[in-house]
Amino acid sequence: MPEVQAVKDLDKVKIVGYLLEKTYGQQIADIWNIGLNLALRISDLLSIKFSDIQGDRLILREGKTGKLATIKLNEKARVIIERIRSERPDHVYLFQSYRNRWSFNQSPKPLSRRYVSKAISMIGEEVGLELGTHSMRKTRGYHLYKNTNDLARVMKMLRHSSEAVTLRYIGITQEDVDRDFVELEL
């Protein structure tokens, strides 16, 4: 299985969101847009309940690490969340599966990771990128690093403990470092 990439071109970030909406619907496009803005692992993103959102903050315990993530929601994330909340006031999960809405004795469940992964992967093929569910998180980290050149800040946002892991994760290669040396002349 190939390693998924960050989307380094901001126009392609928008194209992916557009194609997800046109091909798979608003809910999958919302996952992409919220995922880009929260930089969570897909399992944590799909597990968000409306009760985890307190004012302008998302507070949840990460499944993989057990760390408490307290994320201030930006305007784009708040607008999407409020739209979903108003359209689906009976939902427990932000990205709740519609599959069991006709089953009366079924408890609510979020969308499956497999479905989201397939949708993002298929759109990645269309735009010529190796995309997957981690691409949202990697893309956010990559663009934060490119805008700030502050690796410590990216590490904190992604809740990583190693610079090497963070650089590899966001796709900063030796080629990128070489280009920085050539382009920045003092």
From TrEMBL:
Question: Does the keyword field hold Membrane?
Answer: no
Question: Which GO-annotated molecular functions does the record name?
Answer: DNA binding
Q: What InterPro entries does the database record attribute to this sequence? A: DNA_brk_join_enz, Integrase-like_cat_sf, Integrase_catalytic, Tyrosine_recombinase_XerCD
**Ranges of residues in domain Tyr recombinase:** 1-182
Query: Which PANTHER family does this one have?
Result: INTEGRASE_RECOMBINASE YOEC-RELATED, PHAGE INTEGRASE-RELATED
Name the UniProt record assigns to this protein: Site-specific integrase
Q: Which organism is it from?
A: Idiomarina ramblicola
User: What are its GO biological-process terms?
Assistant: DNA integration; DNA recombination
Which UniProt keywords are listed?
DNA integration, DNA recombination
